[in-house]
C-alpha cells in the first residue's frame, strides 16, 4: 500500500519553529517529486514547497521563501519541512504530496495541523 504519513504539526507561538516530516512507503521514492501543500479554513489548497528526490531541486512559494526549508533523507524515505519565523497566517492543515511522470501518479497524505498563535 502506498502511504505518505505526515507528523510534526502542533501549536506554536509566532516567531517559533516546527519541523514537519513526510514518511513515504510503498513506492519507488527516488522517482518522485515530493511537495508540501497547506489549506487554511475558507481558502483553497496552496502549494508551499517541493523537492525532487533524485537531484534535490527545490522550489518555494513567495510567502514562505527565506523562512521555510525543504530537505530529503533518501536513506529513510523521508522529506522534511523546517518552518522558522512562523506567522499566524501560516496556520493551516499541511499535506504531503508525491508525484511522478511518466507514468503519471499522484498520492496524498492525510495532513497535519499547524496552528500559530500571536
**What percentage of amino acids are in beta strands?**
over 45%
Radius of gyration: 14 Å
**Which structural class matches the secondary elements?**
mainly beta
Helix content: under 10%
How far from one another are the termini?
40 Å
Average pLDDT, rounded to a whole number, is 95
Total helical segments: 0
What can you see in these coordinates?
With 118 residues, this protein is mostly beta strands. Helix content is 0%, strand content 55%. The chain has no helices and eleven strands. Strands 2, 4, 5, 6, 9, 10 and 11 form a seven-stranded mixed β-sheet that branches. It has a four-stranded antiparallel β-sheet with strand order 1-3-8-7, with no helix packed on it. A hairpin with a 5-residue loop joins strand 5 (46-52) and strand 6. The protein is globular. The termini are far apart.
Structural topology:
Elements: E1 3-7, E2 10-13, E3 18-25, E4 33-39, E5 46-52, E6 58-60, E7 68-73, E8 78-83, E9 92-100, E10 105-108, E11 112-117
Summary, kept brief:
0% of the residues lie in helices and 55% in strands. With 118 residues, the protein is an all-beta fold.
